[in-house]
Write a structure and sequence with these properties.
This protein is mainly α. The protein has 2 domains: about 70 residues, no CATH class; about 70 residues, Cytochrome c-like domain (Cytochrome Bc1 Complex, Chain D, domain 2, Orthogonal Bundle), CATH 1.10.760. It is built from 7 helices and no strands. The longest helix has 27 residues. It is elongated.
């Protein structure tokens, strides 16, 4: 006896939806793991597992044998009382002019719409430490290193 029901293979709608779902899944996997990675300039076919890890944004291997980055030495930032004083109108104007360099990446109000960190709500000491790290080369970012070195010449220190 043949069973007729909503979830039987003889139902045309059920059969059509199941075949469509399988087809869409296979096409999505082909596009996501084969075609899209192959159009990247740094693509190297290392197998399905490497493609899955790359798409997920995780390393291929979590083992100790992987290349480990050297941890840069910590910085020592000394804050003087003069740095915490409220400056005059000239200092506020100079700071506003210097801060215009930051708005392109960190946003006009300090809230980034890109992948740059938010500056709004940061303690001044944290910002000073990060700028000091960029200026000394302990942190690397071509844009931030150039801006921090320019700040040092402009009397940041």
């Amino acid at each position: 006896m043949r069973e007729e029901g909503m979830y039987s293979w003889s139902n045309a709608w059920f059969r059509w939806s199941l075949v469509s779902l399988v087809t869409l899944t296979v096409l999505s996997l082909l596009v996501g793991f084969i075609w899209l990675p192959s159009v990247h300039g740094d693509f190297s076919a290392q197998g399905l597992w490497a493609s899955i890890c790359r798409a997920a944004g995780v390393p291929i291997s979590w083992s100790e044998g992987a290349v480990s980055a050297k941890i840069p030495p910590a910085t020592h930032v000394v804050l003087e009382r003069s740095m915490t004083r409220v400056g005059g109108n000239a200092s506020v104007g100079r700071g506003a002019t210097v801060a215009l360099n930051c708005t392109m990446c960190h946003g006009g109000q300090g809230m980034s719409t890109s992948n740059a960190p938010n500056l709004a709500g940061q303690y001044p000491e944290v910002v000073i430490k990060q700028l000091e790290d960029y200026r000394s080369g302990r942190r690397s970012s071509p844009v931030m290193e150039a801006l921090a070195k320019k700040l040092a010449r402009a009397g940041y220190r």
